[in-house]
Amino acid sequence: MTNALFPVVLSGGSGTRLWPLSRSMYPKQFIRFHDGHDASLLGATLARLKPSLGFNAPILLCNNDHRFLVREELERAGIDAKAVILEPVARNTAPAIAVAALTALRDNPNAVLIVMPSDHAVKDEAAFVVAVQNAAEVAAKGRLVLFGIKPDSPQTGFGYILQGSPIGGKTDGVFEVEAFVEKPNAETAAKYLAAGSYTWNSGIFVLNARTYLDELSRFQPDIVAAATKALAKAELDLGFTRLDRDAFSQSPNISIDYAVMEQTKQAAMIPIDVGWNDVGSWSSLWDISERDANGNFVQGDAVMTDTQDTYIHSGTSLVATIGVQNLIIVDTPDALLIADRSRAQDVSKLVAGLRAGKRREQEQHLRSLRPWGFFETLSLSSRFQVKLLHVKPGAKLSMQMHHHRSEHWVVVQGTAKVVIGDKEQLVRENESVYIQATQWHRLENPGKVPLELIEVQLGSYLGEDDILRTDDVYNRAADETK
Predict the structure, then answer these.
(1) What is the pLDDT of residues 444-461, one digit of tens each?
(2) Of 355, 388, 416, at which residue does a domain stop?
């Protein structure tokens, strides 16, 4: 049984309700605002079912934009993935899990999948592992198991599961699924809580891989056909598995709940109480955070007077409050959110408005992550821009050229290897180099410590899309300059 257990981590979410910390290019699963900031939500998910606990190496699914972030989290966790599969287009959970099932069955015809979103929090890790192991025993017999979370409040942001009869008449905590219920209004949610027979749908599944594909073939055969073809025509790129775009695009866009779980006779559910939270909003994050005697949580610098039940995250500035309660205050270098805590779910609507207005703040932070490190905008005007570039030891940028801007680099830490045209030179701390527009150039960190330099750009156009690349060791497409 042990070698048949395959953790599957779905990391394609955008986390819009946790804006402005979560952005489309740096969503919530990568943010370190949980567990003392030592691990991201994705990192904690990877650590939950380690190979050392008897599980196979994980299968991860994500989109192209996040692939290097996922790799970095794997390195931080000290885990080698069985596969990191890139979805070329978003097609929801049913097709993604189909690809994972096909991948696992290549290794083991008795594969059992433990499917987990990448951005959930679990307080009692040991109890969760036991629950997974119990569910895997049920799934090994051909069942599709989902975890129901015992509710402690009448939440309207979750779907619900109506618990049916014990399976086989036994009282070992495994039940039939009587019904799936959509997100209710407040009055209905209160009735569900009082009834005691409803649980929240956690979105965590323990699936017999063969049964899942068989049932999916019954209800949504186009998904299985698309997933099979997309995986068969997949290509390896720097260790990532790139699904074939044309084939995967043919799949219907549908969740596992609608495609299979609400129709199959093989569904089973196990109620669990492991301190689960989907961290789906600032209010849910406040729920699991350590708060002071007045119900306030503060990350960063804040001064509060007569303030109650408020969540404050301060990135760089001092946040001062007087006579407020039940607020969410999140301050970042380029955006400030102030919201009533009861309206935390509406942040996604705000982000939709930012996206419609083509606002950069919904997509990227001032600090933009790259596979070689990051750059951070320090000052921006119409004709100049100042950035901090941070290059990891041993990393190097592509050979590149800009049509409209020149660049002046000043090294403030480490040693840079700089190529301009056909000339190569080492530039040390407190030394600088100037690059004219249209000159081909490359930056590399040959040292053992991070390289940091100040880049001053001057020109008529300073957009990140003013770049031509050759010889990129990260195989990035031309449009990957968001």
Answers:
(1) 999 999 999 999 999 999
(2) 355
Residues 146 and 62 in one domain: yes
| Same domain flag for 294 and 442 | no
Mean pLDDT of 88-100: 96
**In the chain, % of residues over pLDDT 70:** 97
Two structure tokens written together for 26: 């740096």
Domain count, the chain: 3
DSSP secondary structure letters along 14-71: --GGGTTT-BTTB-GGG---BGGGTB-HHHHHHHHT-GGGT-PPPEEEEEGGGHHHHH
Q: CATH code at 416?
A: 2.60.120.10
In 3D space, the residue among 230, 154, 218, 216 whose CA is nearest the CA of residue 185 turns out to be 154
Whether 232 and 97 map to the same domain: the answer is yes
The token duo for 431 is 């030394």
Please report the DSSP string for 74-143 in residue order: HHHHT---SEEEEESS---HHHHHHHHHHHHHHH-TT-EEEEEETT-EES-HHHHHHHHHHHHHHHTTT-
Q: Are residues 314 and 402 in the same domain?
A: no
Strands 276-277 and 240-242, sheet pairing: unpaired
User: What length does the chain have?
Assistant: 482
pLDDT at 260: 95
d(CA 371, CA 258): 36
Buried b (16+ CB within 10 A) or exposed e, 240-264: bbbbbeebbebbeebbbbbbbbeeb
- Residue 479 inside a domain? The answer is no
Residue 86 lies in a domain: yes
Q: What is the pLDDT of residues 104-125, one digit of tens each?
A: 999 999 999 999 999 999 999 9
Pairing of strands 416-420, 468-470: unpaired
Domain with 433, as residue range(s), is 367-470
Same domain, 179 and 300: no
Which pLDDT tens digit goes with each residue over 358-398? 999 999 899 989 999 999 999 989 899 999 999 999 999 99
**Same domain flag for 99 and 208:** yes
Rounded to the nearest integer, the mean pLDDT of the chain is 93
Asked if the structure places residue 432 within a domain, the reply is yes
